[in-house]
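The instructor's notes for this session suggest beginning with a concrete chain rather than abstract definitions. Hand out the sequence below and ask the class to guess, before any prediction is shown, which regions might be ordered.
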Amino acid sequence: MTPLTATDETASGVEPLDRASELEALRAAVAGAAEGSGALVVLEGPAGIGKSRLISETAQSAAEGVRVRRARAIELERAFAFGA
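After discussion, reveal the predicted structure:
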């Protein structure tokens, strides 16, 4: 499988603004996982900066046969033992 790059057209047809390096890193992690190299990616930041869009674009451009799992958390969960 050829690793995806930030220059590939995204599923929506429009790259998120100023996120080429982030998309490239996420797509490299997906490509590595498809080849047997596992990885954990933590994407965090303030509300409204495009985290969900980055994940959606990455998931939609993942190669067929790649299982995509999503999880969400809210800031209030940090107070719980497994919320960090």
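Then share the key points. Confidence is low (pLDDT under 50) at residues 1-11. Residues 42 and 71 are 11 Å apart (CA to CA).
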